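Thread: sanity check for a docking pose with magnesium ion

Original post by kr_44:
Hi all, I'm comparing my docking run against an independent structure prediction. Below are the sequence and the ligand SMILES. Could someone generate the full complex and paste the structure tokens? I mainly care about where the ligand ends up relative to the chain.
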Amino acid sequence: MTRFQSSTPLRGAVIFDRDGVLNQDVGYAYRPDQIVWTPGARDAVKAVNDAGLLAFVATNQSGVARGLYTEADVAALHGWMNGELAKGGARIDAFVYSPYLPDAPIEAYRRDSDCRKPGPGMIRALLADWPVDPARACMIGDRETDLAAARAAGVRGVLFTGGDLRPVVAQVIDSLRA
Ligand SMILES: [Mg+2]
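Reply from moderator J.T.:
Ran it for you. Here is the predicted complex with magnesium ion included:
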């Protein structure tokens, strides 16, 4: 089931990994005070918005399966991040996360889920729920598992190796023009 009409025009999309792309990967961040934005990250998200592309985050959050924090913490953090983005006129259209881990200490999350990158599940869910043209969708990640997830979902993938996110995203936006 999809949330959009079949007549809805399809749009390009940029799918950001979170930790290591939008914010520094400090390991299992779940509170606002642990978020240090990557240089240019908020402007990069705004550039995606301004280009008429959808902006998504797809993030593995095995900290939930490990019992370090809860899904409510993840949702609250993502709400906070969108609040911070809104101050600069930017927004993430949807956050998706995988709380699972095959050998999780918390049984409810002990699952070998294809939603956990390198599985394609999160990207596939975004493509199903939003009017996205897969030929004009790109995942930006800082790990090979992000790129593997993109390949498995049939979308492009770009490796972010650090520094200013803006030029990387500008190049991706150029590549996604219809
Ligand atoms: Mg990452």
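The radius of gyration is 15 Å. Hope that helps with the comparison, let us know if your pose agrees.
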